[in-house]
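Hi all, long-time lurker, first post. I run a small reading group and we've been trying to get comfortable going from sequence to structure in the token notation. Rather than ask abstract questions, I figured I'd post a concrete chain and ask someone more experienced to write out its structure so we can walk through it together at our next meeting. Sequence below, copied exactly:
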Amino acid sequence: MVAVGVALRLNDASAPLAATSGALMTLGGFRRTAYDGNQPRFRVSGEVATLANTKLVGPFSLGFLYSISARNVTIETFADADDAVAATPEQMIIQPLTALVRESWRGGQLGQAQVEQLRVIEHRPGGDTLLLQAASCRVTLTRRRAECSDGTMTRHGTSVAFKTASYDGKTLQMRP
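-- Answer (accepted) --
Happy to help. Here is the structure in token form:
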């Protein structure tokens, strides 16, 4: 997965949209690929993504912590032969979504991501592929866990449906 400090070259297409109320930025019809040298590391595409301040309680927010919400998103990650461990939720979801807005938005840290209609394709060494599809997923940096609902997990040609799933990079807990 994408290691901290790896220089990424980005190739993208996206159309800025008029920001909705409370949004810092909104992208529509986005597609971005990040490369490490000539090796693709991740690709993210989707219908719409909105960056906003993370709300604490009521109207209060932290000025350096942001959230991103997105719809109809596909994230593909590409591991190389040295990547022996599975990706963490931060690597699978937060890093690709942060890359969407990084060049236009230079402030703070992304504290949470909320995605409606998410599809994650993790290409692992040896041709193994993990596919996660969910009606919604949420990742927060404070919990470092992806929490998804109403989806399927497919690996080695076997699909398992779940009502809720929680994944922290090591342990996957699913409830049918």
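A couple of things your group might point at:
Confidence is low (pLDDT under 50) at residues 1-10.
The first strand starts at residue 9 and ends at 16.
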